[in-house]
Amino acid sequence: MANGLAPGIVKYQDKYDNAQLPQDDFLKVAKDLISQCHSETYVFVNQPGLSRSDFKQHKQSMHKLYNYVLTSSTTVKFEKIDIVQNDDIYEELIAYTMDKCNIDDKIDIGGNVTDRYQPFVEARTRVLRVDFPPLPQQGQYVEGIGTRKDVLQANDEYLRYVMGTLPTPKHTVFYMSLEKSEVPDTETSLSYDIWPEIFTNPQRKVEIDRNDRVAKEMPKLVPYRPRIDTEDDKYLTVLDQEFIDNHYGIIVLIIGVTIAFILLQLGAVKVKKPSKPQITKDVTKEKKTQ
Q: 20 to 30 A Cα–Cα from 244, which one of 25, 41, 147, 230?
């Protein structure tokens, strides 16, 4: 699965769906996806012992992975891959990825859910490999680990932690078991599809970038349309001819009173004269002069 769009990959879903996919054909599809170099982080997850029935029986324990698949722009699934015994195809794919996309950094994560690797913040392309321990058998309880359901849920949370520490959302993820899964005899006759509500949805065949946050074109502005039609509404104004005709007398009276008031105020300013200062005699000084 890839967060961004990888054109031409979805076609392999119909070509190999429900078929025993030879290892060489799987490598061809994987390299076709990788060669587009559209991601900034390539994550290779190995979950030994994983089987198709886990996606049905333990779906709730894998809901983080489910959401990643659901929201990816490009996602394909192959239920039956004929992997040559003891052949680590991840190492071949990782070497191809680093060479094709000019990647220098590779981080190996043991997959121990109690450990936390040092997250990186530099936004340069990297390869991550996560190797989880083998799953317990169906119905088996392992001391200190739990049941198969418990382990799948813990690994799902750890995968969420790993994905959450990536500096950008542009990633490509491979999730599979590199070892042949032991399927109980009670399940060999049963048919399990991997999340058919996702992979059989016709919309998944449409190649669009579901995570493109940047619009390719500026959106067209919708013209303003008021909920109430005000086109015929008339606004009251003193310049309206109908208003002047109906209130002509009152308007003339108001204007005349206003002009008269202004003239009276101007006349009052001109008529008013400044008062003379009062002169007081110094009586004491006058008596002395006499």
A: 230
**Rounded to two decimals, what is the model's pTM?**
0.70
Choice between 23 and 284, residue whose per-residue pLDDT is larger: 23
Residue type, 235: Y
Instruction: State whether residue 74 is helix, strand or coil.
Output: strand
- Interval 110-129: pLDDT, tens: 777 666 667 766 678 999 99
Q: What is the pLDDT of residue 234?
A: 56
Give the tens place of pLDDT for each residue, 252-265: 888 888 888 888 87
Q: What is the DSSP letter of 285?
A: H
Residue type, 147: T
Contact 75, 210 (CB under 8 A): no
Question: Which residue type sits at 175?
Answer: Y
CA distance 192 to 268: 105
Q: Strand ranges (DSSP E) for the chain?
A: 21-22, 41-46, 81-82, 105-109, 126-131, 171-176
Instruction: Enter the DSSP assignment of 1.
Output: -
C-alpha angle 204-191-136 in degrees, rounded to nearest 5: 100
pLDDT band at 171, cuts 50/70/90? very high
DSSP per-residue string spanning 5-27: --TT-THHHHHHTTS-EEHHHHH
Q: Containing H/E element for 159?
A: helix 148-164
d(CA 137, CA 182): 8
Calculate the average pLDDT of the chain.
80
Say which residues have a Cβ less than 8 Å from residue 207's Cβ, sequence separation at least 6: 5, 7, 8, 10, 74
